[in-house]
Amino acid sequence: MSLPTFPTISTDTGVTRQVLSDSPELMVVSFRFENGAKGKLHRHPHVQSTYVARGKFRFFRNGQTYELKAGDSLVIPGNTEHGCECLEAGELIDCFTPRRDDFLSVSSA
């Protein structure tokens, strides 16, 4: 039995997203950022954890700023405004609960 393969999608200038695995209760997603790329401020009802697999990022969460490097992580409660700026090209591994159904559509950004 083979696992499903999800496409890599460009979500913004210098940012790509690929769903790695999912179930209705949880989703694991890779986001790859070029230096200087941004994850625009946004909010969603899902609880999100982000793990910096490589690179360096400045995160914004509810008006506070955090600098994270490889090996660091951050939890973002549901409905909390957040975003990031890539300071050194890298990859984030994000987990969402429940699953982000909007990420399962190839055309979603």
Automatic annotation (TrEMBL):
Keywords (alphabetical) are: Plasmid
**Would I find Lipid biosynthesis among this entry's keywords?**
no
The protein's matches in Pfam families, at most eight in alphabetical order, are given as: Cupin_2
Domain Cupin type-2, which positions? 31-87
Q: Domain of life, per the record?
A: Bacteria
Put simply, this protein is called: Cupin domain-containing protein
Q: Name the source organism.
A: Ensifer adhaerens (Sinorhizobium morelense)
